[in-house]
């Protein structure tokens, strides 16, 4: 089954010893000859079936694909384009099994996990439960077919006595995967919670009842479970029952009577099995009655279980601080902090690349519990600081340090004293200044940099330590109309001017950029730029965004920065980092 998608399925390795000892078998692979969706589609977004019939048999609500071919009078299955492995007690290849005497009908159930779902323990445990639950539900549903008085159910599956065994596949996937199935087989480019794809061809009179495939989006199931107040397992069971009834001939889409009959059977099965929750049709009715219809969002990963159901596309995220991770109040939002924690739990490494000092970053992120060995920054973690002039690698050891020319340092200090414009010199983990000023204080109180030490003279400040960069602080107008034009000329190629904030101008060594700092760190770590995603806003982020496989500029960023970015995200005051991680990192 699922022959068109099986190359991207992976072997579901369940947790128990019993499961590991089960035999593996290649599933018989067939194309679906009809496909149905859940009432979430039919009630809120009416489904349109495409008629792609390729045989003499067709009906309004069925679609047939070529499934079998005949060779010397015997039916053979098409050669699979890939392998799908399932684990089920006593599962074996039916074609190779020796004929046996009449015995109890054998149910062969395969539970598959699509490869894009991460190896999450809860999902594996749910798959293990389904291995037990699905056969039980099938038996109960088959018993309900006997002497049933349903008028709308198609009766292709009626007498089970003519079959030796019955096969059914249940696959767990995410929204992206089920969206592709919808687009390919139904012509609808959106995700649904469950799809049913029948493989049964009654005219062939096979000894095997190949019921087909039930495909369930764990992503959508997680959101619906959160909305309806029950567990993910409860919701997946409900979706499985709905898909199973479709395969048994129920179809809520053809008429009101058919909808009522399928709803009754859903509720009856769930009650008989003792499972929590309402049937999918009844739940959809409840949504219609209590809420306005909302457009489907196939990529809303901020709800339900968030990123847990996705695999990372990258190995690293390099993220700027001011104007990016921090909002306009220089604070990190809970949404951004949560997204970073989720990303790290899913295996992504987050590296800060900023114009700030390392102590300044630690001071801010400590409040969000993002520091230390389990956080994204510490004195023993990699990072790019002070515009790439201080680069720390494994165990936080210094990889690179760039220093400003001492003559340029002297000239900037003299300019500061002469014009009364506050200046802060960055010297590794220290900030130095020549006089007290409210703007100097704001660098500590607002931007959380180390409190500036007042040095009594220019000569002493320069002799104090190596200086990586200096910052002039003034009004936005003063920086743009006076300070920047002057120092763009005065440096004379001995230094560069960089502007990350509108009210600050930075003087840095020539060739300085975060992009170069990120390059040096990647070389140190042995990581390719193709493995990274970068998020920034300022002109000082341009090289970093250009270097990354995916560069995201936030909407509040500089126009030059947005011009080179691959995508433009929402602003830093709208949790832009969290939004970018949810949309693009997985």
Automatic annotation (TrEMBL):
PROSITE patterns: COF_1 (PS01228), COF_2 (PS01229), UPF0054 (PS01306). The keyword Signal does not apply. Belongs to the endoribonuclease YbeY family. It holds the Pfam family YbeY. The keyword Metal-binding applies. Coiled coil: none annotated. It comes from Cardamine amara subsp. amara. It comes from the Eukaryota. CDD domains: HAD_Pase. Gene3D superfamilies: 3.30.1240.10, HAD superfamily/HAD-like (3.40.50.1000), Metalloproteases ('zincins'), catalytic domain (3.40.390.30). This is Endoribonuclease YBEY. Keywords: Endonuclease, Hydrolase, Metal-binding, Nuclease, Zinc. One of its GO terms (molecular function) is hydrolase activity. Its cofactor is Zn(2+).
